[in-house]
Design brief:
Strand content: 15-25%
Number of helices: 14
CATH superfamily of the largest domain: Histidine kinase-like ATPase, C-terminal domain
CATH class of the largest domain: Alpha Beta
Shape: flat
CATH topology of the largest domain: Heat Shock Protein 90
Length: 416
């Protein structure tokens, strides 16, 4: 009985270990019959064949595993596509131990590598795009420089020489912008971007951006109007990041709106989200392109974007920065009619109220927004005076009273 209990306990422990793994495990004994598999393998592959030969026939015929096994290759592995996912299967011969005795067997591991493969494809595409984007201005700079050095300075007139130098200068600026955007994306991807979350009025921030870009719109005879549709628009976010997002959206609208057109910027709210909506009557975007505009280096009109000095990274950076503030950017457009881009950010009231519950539950902040919210809530609690009636009968903080104080302070900052 003791031996049976020990064997049962060992089996239970083995099953628990196998079940806890996020990799599929299938074990075949010396007779090539199935002796164990874990739930992950069954989720990936469904019904596991009873024999190793059956497994190789079903899952290793098209990826070279079966051939490599029968040729006694050292590498018996292959990829398997199932329901849009990619599994990496590896078969290895291992000595197994059962009841104190060792015998030969095979262990097959199945790992979902879909995410890694997509990342690798994105990395390769990213490198290819960067190489292309850098090569284009470098080619221009090189060709114009060679022309000037070989004969241009001696034979061209002053106006033509100045034009060539201006072209070289413009492409160097384009490269500088591209490198700056790439460095910013690298900082965002590695979570090393320093942000300073503060309370500010989103509508007033948008108004300042419109005032700053009014001359640029006027130079193209484009009207730029701003309207506020919400009394309070206090957000807890990194102001410089929000300014970059809004600048990108408005500048894009100016670039893709023809002379005599109009751009309208609205500030409003939907429940606990504030939004800044940029609407233009420009050239518009096809639906097939609209689904891809937030991808890195994607251009609706490659030639047009280069004429405007774009790097193909502006909207991608804007979306990444918006997500860092717990926000998002949505786009709507119709070709030949115009486009509408909307930045959504959660209200400071919502963020701070959530933070109050997190602080009371002693939860750790999960991002920069939560960290700033926790610090703000703790600071306000420390500023409370005896005149603030926020204690209940037991002497503890009254939650409703604290929520009222948050609402008061947030609204106070809007000037209401």
């Amino acid at each position: 009985m003791r031996t049976m209990r020990r064997i049962a306990n060992e089996r239970t422990e083995s099953q628990a270990i196998l079940s806890s793994l996020d990799v599929g495990i299938i074990a075949y004994g010396s007779d090539n019959r199935l002796i164990a598999s874990n739930p992950v393998a069954e989720t990936f592959l469904g019904m596991i064949p009873d024999t190793l030969a059956g497994f190789l026939d079903r899952f290793g015929a098209d990826n070279g595993m079966r051939t490599a096994f029968y040729l006694e290759s050292d590498d018996v592995s292959g990829d398997l596509e199932i329901d849009g996912n990619t599994l990496r299967l590896v078969c290895q011969q291992h000595p197994l131990r059962v009841g104190g005795e060792r015998f030969g067997g095979h262990i097959i591991t199945a790992q979902d590598v879909t995410h890694f493969r997509r990342q690798e494809e994105q990395r390769k595409a990213f490198v290819a795009n960067v190489s292309h984007e850098l090569k284009t201005p470098l080619t221009t700079i090189k060709s114009y420089s060679e022309t000037l050095l070989d004969w241009g300075i001696d034979e061209k007139n002053r106006t033509d020489i100045k034009s060539d130098v201006a072209r070289i200068y413009d492409d160097s600026i384009r490269m500088e912008r591209l490198i700056a955007d790439l460095l910013l994306l690298s900082t965002i991807d590695s979570s090393r971007l320093h942000v300073q979350m503060t309370l500010f009025d989103l509508a007033e921030c948008a108004r300042q951006i419109c005032d700053r870009l009014a001359d640029q719109a006027s130079a193209k005879s484009i009207s730029l109007d701003f309207s506020v549709m919400s009394r309070h628009a206090t957000v807890l976010a990194d102001r410089s990041s929000v300014e970059r997002i809004l600048t990108n959206l408005v500048v894009n609208a100016i670039h893709y709106t023809e002379a005599g057109g109009s751009i309208r910027v609205y500030a409003g709210n939907i429940v606990d989200d504030f939004y800044i909506k940029v609407v233009d009557d420009g050239v518009g975007i096809k639906q097939s392109d609209l689904d891809n505009i937030f991808r890195r280096f994607y251009r609706v009109d490659k030639t047009g974007s280069r004429a405007f000095g774009g790097t193909g990274l502006g909207l991608s950076i804007a979306q990444e920065l918006a997500r860092m503030q717990r926000g998002r950017i949505e786009a709507e457009s119709e070709l030949g009619v115009g486009s509408q881009f909307t930045l959504f950010l959660p209200s400071a009231r919502r963020i701070l109220r959530d933070s109050l519950f997190e602080v009371s539950n002693k939860e750790k902040p999960r991002d920069a927004v939560a960290t700033a919210a926790h610090e703000t809530v703790r600071k306000w609690l420390g500023e409370l005076s005896d005149d603030d009636d926020i204690m209940d009968d037991t002497g503890a903080f009254d939650l409703r009273g604290l929520l009222d104080i948050i609402d008061r302070k947030v609204h106070y900052r809007t000037g209401s």
